[in-house]
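Appendix B. Raw example, untouched.
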Amino acid sequence: MRAPNEIDFWRGFALVTIFINHIPGIYFERFTYRNVSLSDSAELFVFLAGCALRILVDGAARALPAQWLVFRLEARAFNVYVAQMVVTEMAIALLAAAALLLDAPYLIDWHNASTVFNDPLKAHIGLVLLTHQLGYFNILPLYVVLLLIAPAVALLHRYAKPLLPLISLAIYAFALISGINFPTWPIEGTWFLNPLSWQLIYVLGFLIAGTDGIGGFARHHRSVLRWLALPVVILGALVAITGFSPNPVDVPEPKLLFTFDKTFLAPARLIHSLALTAIFAGTFRMIRSSIPRSSGFLCLLGRNSLIVFCALSLLSLMGQILRFIFGGYIALDALIVILGILLMGFIAWTAEWRERLRAELANKPSSPPPSAGF
C-alpha cells in the first residue's frame, strides 16, 4: 500500500466530485467546485492520470526494457477496457431491472441506452468497440485510449524528450482546427471526450510530474506561477457563476479555439485547469495536517481509483434511480451521498485488505495440510 501522497489525495477528491456530479439535480451538486470553475473534475482526473504514468515510468518501470514497458502499459489498458465492459453491462442491467420493477419502460431510454434494447446486435458490437457509450460512462473509454498511447508517451520521453510536447500539441491543434473526433456507431455522432484533444492534458500531467523540463521549471517558479494563475482562476469562477459562454456563431474560425467546449477541451478550459493546478499544487501537506482523517480517506480512494471509479459510476446511477422513485429532497440526497461515499471507501478498503492478506499468505512458510499425502 502506498503512503498517502498528493496525487492520490487529489484523485480521491476528483472521484468524490465525479460521483456527486453524476447525479444530476442532487442538492449537493451545487457545492462541487465546477460551480465556481470553468474546468471540472474530468480535467483533474486525466491530468493526474498523466502524473501517475510519469511516476511509474521514472520509478518502478525505469529499468524495464522498452518491450516490457510497452507490455505492462498495454496490460493496464486491457484491464481498464474490461472494467468498462463490465460496468457498462451492469449499468444496462440496472436500467432494465428498474424499468421492469417500476413499470417505467422509458427508463431504458436514459443515457443513450435505448439502442442496446432496440438494436442489440449493432449496439453490443459498438459497446465492445467503444463506439457506443452510455452517458456518464464515457470517461473510461477515453482512459483506455490514453493508456493505449501511454507506451508512445513513455518511449518518446525515454528516447526523444523534445518531441513529446511538440507532437502532443500538434495533435491537439489539429483536432481543434479540423474538428476531427472519434466517431460513434451505431448511433452516428462523436465521442463525448475527444481523445485527440484530451491527450494533451494527459501529456502535460506526465511532463509536469517530472523534475526536469516543464516540471522542473514549474517547481522552480511555483510562487510566480501561482500569482499568474490567480486571475485566471478568478475569471473562471466569474464565468461559471454568471453562466457566460461564447456563442459559437459569434466567434471567428476556428471556433473551437474560442469556445468553452468540453468535448474538445477548448484552450480556455485547459488553461483554467492548469491554473488550478498551479494554485493547489504543493498544498497536500498543509491539508493533511489540517484534516488527517479526511485526507487519508481521499488517498485511500485515489490509491484504488479504477475499482472506485467503476463503483461510483454504478452508485451514481442507483442514486439517479432512487431520486426518480422518491423524488429529490435534501434528506434523500444526503443519504445517497453519505452512503455512496462510504461504499466507495469500503470497496477501496476491501481491495487493499485483499492485497494485504495476499502478501501475508505469501510470506508464510508453506506447509502441507494435515490431510495431504498418502
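End of appendix B.
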